TrEMBL record:
It comes from the Eukaryota. This is Uncharacterized protein. The chain crosses the membrane at residues 70-92, 113-134. Keywords: Membrane, Transmembrane, Transmembrane helix. InterPro entries: UbiA_sf.
């Protein structure tokens, strides 16, 4: 139906789906958060991967340094970087988020929250090892 507001015809708002099985981004994220193995992907906010990679590309393409490390760094800015940033945010904000009615459906289970710091570190370690192994000390 339609209603008239301020002399304009405005369509009635479409009711929001309430079933988590529907394919809305929020429903997909809720289902991913409940998956026993894939919940770290949800924590890393896949919708933020593109902005992170674009920010990395801006700097990487400007410097045009080491090509092999370019691919390693690009991979880092997809998942591990976002897990670090978003996961740390989830750890710090957990108590505040737990009383926020808007975020009730996105909270991690307590065992997930306990595991998150370890997962963040484990996701960083391969990249730190590669960076340390390829670091040029500039000594001739």
């Amino acid at each position: 139906g339609f209603s008239v507001r301020c002399f304009a015809v405005v369509p009635e708002p479409t009711p929001r789906p309430t079933s988590p099985e529907l394919s809305t981004p929020k429903a997909k994220m809720m289902n991913l958060m409940r998956h026993p193995q894939l919940w770290p992907v949800a924590v890393s906010r896949p919708q933020m991967w593109a902005p992170s990679v674009l920010t990395f590309l801006h700097g990487a393409l400007a410097t045009r340094d080491d090509v092999p490390l370019f691919w390693v760094n690009l991979l880092y800015f997809l998942f591990p970087y976002n897990l670090l940033i978003m996961g740390w945010n989830d750890i710090i904000d957990y108590k505040v988020d737990s009383i926020n009615p808007r975020k009730q459906d996105r909270l991690m289970a307590p065992h997930q929250l306990e595991m998150l710091p370890t997962l963040i570190v484990l996701a960083q370690l391969p990249f730190v090892a590669i960076w340390l192994a390829t670091y040029d000390l500039g000594v001739s």
